[in-house]
Specification:
The chain has 232 residues and is an alpha/beta fold. The chain has seven helices and eleven strands. A hairpin with a 2-residue loop joins strand 2 and strand 3.
Length: 232
């Protein structure tokens, strides 16, 4: 029986956080960031197994302080990432069996993701070319010239901010990544690679809480969200 896989990409270098350790190992609410992310995928009813992509130098550390300590059962394999996120995802895709059904690609730094949102996106990906979890843009978006003068103002009523997971049939997203590798096309997210081949990707409404940890301020905001969730 075909399975649905999650690819969790956590190979970032944490350059913008000035941290001595990779951000996936930063503790928040008593647990590493990456462990919170894995918790959500472990609890998802529609994700069968997980491939984790991290820095090669962090693999043994990850096994010891996260995978073994918290006894995750769905983690099929831990593999080394590439120099850029796109290469890391491709490494993850290549680790999946050829009869994989759906692939949910997720940034490990979006650790506030919920099992419910993972399942919502996965359900929506059935019988489609793929889906992107996203939220409507709240701010007015400006485009600028090189001298910082405004060249365009976009209609925010039709703009969405993409998040992860992004979920696709395995055959489609594998084709998209291999084609991008062959042609040198660099996308801004997973969906852009499939869009580049003409596939129609749908939006699934995400959550304002599904933030990506990029700066130290994001950690403060995340702690607030976690505290609020505990009070519910």
């Amino acid at each position: 029986m075909k399975k649905n896989y999650g690819i969790i990409v956590a190979a970032g270098k944490s350059r913008r956080m000035n941290s001595a350790v990779s951000k996936q190992f930063i503790f928040i609410s008593g647990k590493p960031i990456l462990a919170h992310t894995l918790d959500a995928f472990e609890k998802s009813s529609l994700i069968d197994q997980i491939v984790l992509v991290i820095n090669e130098s962090d693999i043994e550390k990850c096994k010891k302080i996260i995978i073994n300590k918290y006894r995750y059962k769905k983690v099929r394999e831990i593999i080394a990432g590439g120099e850029e996120r796109q290469y890391s995802v491709l490494n993850g895709l290549k680790a999946l069996p050829s009869d994989t059904n759906l692939v949910a690609i997720h940034d490990g730094a979006r650790f506030l993701i919920t099992p419910e949102l993972i399942d919502k996106a996965t359900k929506a990906a059935y019988d489609s070319d793929g889906v992107v979890v996203a939220i409507p843009v709240q701010d007015t978006i400006k485009e600028s010239r090189s001298d910082k003068t405004i060249s365009n103002t976009f209609n925010r009523n039709i703009l969405w901010a993409a998040q992860t997971p992004q979920v696709f049939p395995y055959s489609i997203i594998m084709e998209a990544y291999l084609k991008a590798s062959e042609t040198g096309f660099i996308g801004t997210d997973d969906a852009s690679l499939a869009e580049n081949l003409g596939y129609e990707i749908h939006l699934v409404r995400g959550s304002v809480e599904n933030i990506k940890i990029t700066t130290n301020f994001d950690l403060i905001l995340a702690e607030t969200i976690l505290n609020r969730r505990r009070l519910k």
